[in-house]
Each structure stands twice: as C-alpha cells, then as structure tokens.
C-alpha cells in the first residue's frame, strides 16, 4: 500500500506498473494478487481512499488547536510548499494525478476520488464553521482552498518553484477575511 | 495533432497509446513516425505547446474588448463550467493531466508544460495590468486565477458537477476586488 501510494502520487495510475509496486515494496510478485485479488485496480482504489483519508488527517492536525483561522490557512500552504521543496517537487496531492487520469476512463476509481474530495469538503465545512462562518461560507472557503491547493500543486510541480503555493495562501487568506464575521 | 490533443487531455500521456492516436486520426500507422520522428514523446511535446497556446488565445478573447475585469473573470469561469457540462466532464485543461504525470518522470515534457504555464502567467500579468493593477498585483491575480481554475477542474471532473468552478469564480472575483485600485 505504501509503495503503491508513493508511485501513484508521483507517476500516476497508468504510469505505474504492478511489477514496479511489488519491487518497490520488496515483496514477492504473487503477494500482490494474494492481498489484492482485484489486482492493480483494487490496489489503486484502496490507495486512493487510504491516502485521501491520511491527507485529511493532516488537515485536521493543522486546525486542531488553532484558534486563528488565518494562521491555520497560512500554516497549511507553508507546509505544502516545504514538502514540495523537500521532495524535489514530487509529493503534492496524493490523489490528483490519478483523479485526472481516471475521470473519463475508470468509473470505479473516479468514484473513489470523488468520495475522498467529498469527505474533505465536508470536514472543512464543519471545521471552518467553528470559526464563526455560516455553513454556506464555510463550504465556499473549503472548496476555494482545495481549488487553490490542487491548482498550485500543478503549477508548482511543473515550474519547480513554490510561488503558486505562496499565492494560494495569500488568495485563500484574502477570501477568508471577506467571509469572517 | 488534434486527435492526440483530445486523447491526452482526456486520458493523459501514459494512458494514450500511439495506436489509439493514429486510429482516432484515421491515419495510416506509419504516418505518425513520418511526421513525428521522435514518436509519442515528440507528438506529446508539440501537443502540449500547441494546445497550451490555443488555450491562452481563448483567455485573450475573453479579455480583448472587456472593459470590466470582474465581468471578464466571471465570463471565464462560467464558460469553463459550460464546456465541462457539455463534454460530460471530459474537456478541462488541455495540459494539466500530462503536467502532473510527467512532472517527476519526463523532463522534456515537464519543460514544455512549464513553458506553457509561464506564457499564461506572463500574458495574464500584462493583461491585468491594463485594468490598473500594479505588476505585482497583476501577477498575483493571474497565478491565483490559474490555481483556482486548475484545482476546480480536478474537483469538477472527479465530482461531475460545476460547484468548484462557481466557487473559483467567486473567490477570484473577491481577490480581484481587493487588488483593484
């Protein structure tokens, strides 16, 4: 699962071979089909769901004891930028590459990515409501944040700099300020 | 080129086979290597550069005779949402899927995507400067817009709705209002 998650995040779903995953995991080849009788698709689905939830847990940590919404948002984007620099621009969103690849080609995997994004949006909406935002504003801010983060990841990985993540932080903070009571 | 562009946009780079492109183009197999001696990689690079520039031309059209920056931004996102609905959530950014796939795996294609994004950022910075924004604000707004659009495309294609694009329009307009003199 860990090896699969890393390969999918960096190389995408179609760009990752079953052999590669097994090799990266130092596992015997047969073990993949032992644990994942549905093969690469089943592993892909489980990786999407699991890594999506791990990423959500990371978000929860940033806002767990954070009394200030603006600080929390700034910390999120600063941390994302640091991770990208540290991993040579490889480790961004765990599911975005796969989400774009499968959106029009694999309905089972598309639904897995949709379930993850839905869980993120619901969790953010609930969390941001605690800072005094209406449910509508909290949902708007959450989706705007995910939009900015996902888009900034595309630019950052392509351009190999973190300017887009800095901008995402600034624009998300600007929006939050207009929504805060 | 046209067949390759459509397949790459929808299925990604690794998910598109040379045979598929030739079939979709109703061309004899040998013609691909005749016109693209570098094969799939050369075709991929030319598709990235050409479709990236076509997308930029679309942006230029939206702002060509638009006296109002806010209207222009709203029209961009509304049009993107309409295209997604009309194409059953297949046709979003022409280069994002490929950009994520190749960012850590194919330096030649990564540079092609980076050149396209750089051209977009420069064109937007110049255009938005004409609405009275400083060069710094115009660049910030451009990158924020691309961030939001690219991220909203990921969510929209995965969730098969256009809420993320509506939010991207609202958040981009909110940022533009804080930057306008």
UniProtKB/TrEMBL annotation, chains A, B:
<protein>
    <submittedName>
        <fullName>TetR family transcriptional regulator</fullName>
    </submittedName>
</protein>
<dbReference type="Pfam" id="PF21993">
    <property type="entry name" value="TetR_C_13_2"/>
</dbReference>
<keyword id="KW-0238">DNA-binding</keyword>
<dbReference type="GO" id="GO:0003677">
    <property type="term" value="F:DNA binding"/>
</dbReference>
<dbReference type="InterPro" id="IPR009057">
    <property type="entry name" value="Homeodomain-like_sf"/>
</dbReference>
<feature type="domain" description="HTH tetR-type">
    <location>
        <begin position="2"/>
        <end position="47"/>
    </location>
</feature>
<keyword id="KW-0804">Transcription</keyword>
<keyword id="KW-0805">Transcription regulation</keyword>
<dbReference type="Pfam" id="PF00440">
    <property type="entry name" value="TetR_N"/>
</dbReference>
<feature type="domain" description="Transcriptional regulator LmrA/YxaF-like C-terminal">
    <location>
        <begin position="71"/>
        <end position="168"/>
    </location>
</feature>
<dbReference type="InterPro" id="IPR036271">
    <property type="entry name" value="Tet_transcr_reg_TetR-rel_C_sf"/>
</dbReference>
<dbReference type="InterPro" id="IPR054156">
    <property type="entry name" value="YxaF_TetR_C"/>
</dbReference>
<dbReference type="InterPro" id="IPR001647">
    <property type="entry name" value="HTH_TetR"/>
</dbReference>
């Amino acid at each position: 699962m860990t090896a699969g998650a890393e390969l999918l995040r960096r190389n995408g779903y179609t760009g990752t071979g079953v052999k590669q995953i097994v090799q990266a995991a130092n596992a015997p080849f047969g073990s993949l089909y032992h644990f994942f009788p549905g093969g690469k698709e089943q592993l892909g689905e489980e990786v999407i769901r699991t890594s999506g939830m791990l990423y959500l847990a990371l978000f929860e940590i940033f806002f767990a004891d954070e009394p200030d919404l603006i600080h929390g948002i700034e910390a999120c984007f600063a941390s994302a930028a640091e991770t990208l620099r540290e991993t040579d621009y490889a480790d961004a969103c765990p599911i975005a590459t796969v989400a774009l690849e499968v959106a029009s080609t694999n309905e089972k995997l598309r639904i897995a990515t949709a379930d993850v994004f839905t869980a993120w949006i619901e969790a953010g909406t609930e969390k941001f409501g605690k800072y005094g935002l209406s449910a509508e504003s909290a949902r708007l801010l959450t989706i705007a944040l995910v939009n900015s983060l996902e888009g900034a990841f595309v630019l950052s990985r392509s351009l190999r700099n973190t300017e887009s993540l800095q901008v995402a932080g600034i624009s998300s903070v600007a929006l939050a300020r207009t929504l805060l009571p």
